[in-house]
Amino acid sequence: MRAEAASAGFYESPWGSKHPKIQLLTVEELLGGKQVDMPQSGDFRTFKKAPRAKKVSDTRVQTLAFGDD
């Protein structure tokens, strides 16, 4: 199983760090504090944020839900 995971190779982040694509951790290792080898949270800058949606007023929501009666 470990050989199969190792054969998957490494992920190379755009910032130059390498991380195993498949990582095997036992429960004992997790409880002992071992963590998954992945890019730092600051490295996730590959996607743009979507613009915030405008809030719809309550009256408009009621009109859409119940009609203009």
Protein architecture, described:
The protein has a domain of 36 residues. It is an alpha+beta fold and 69 residues long. The chain is built from three helices and two strands, in the order H-E-E-H-H. It is 29% helix and 9% strand. A two-stranded antiparallel ribbon has the order 1-2. The longest helix is centred in the last third of the chain and has 9 residues. The mean pLDDT is 81.
Number of strand elements: 2
| Average predicted local confidence, pLDDT | 81
Q: Distance between the terminal alpha carbons, to the nearest Å?
A: 66 Å
Nearest-angstrom radius of gyration? 23 Å
Number of helices: 3
Give the biggest sheet: 2 strands, antiparallel
**Helicity, as a percent range:** 25-40%
Q: Helices and strands, in N-to-C order?
A: HEEHH
Please state the structural category: alpha+beta
Instruction: Report strand %.
Output: 5-15%
- The shape is elongated
Query: What ranges have pLDDT less than 50 throughout 5 or more consecutive residues?
Result: none
- How do the strands line up in the largest sheet? 1-2
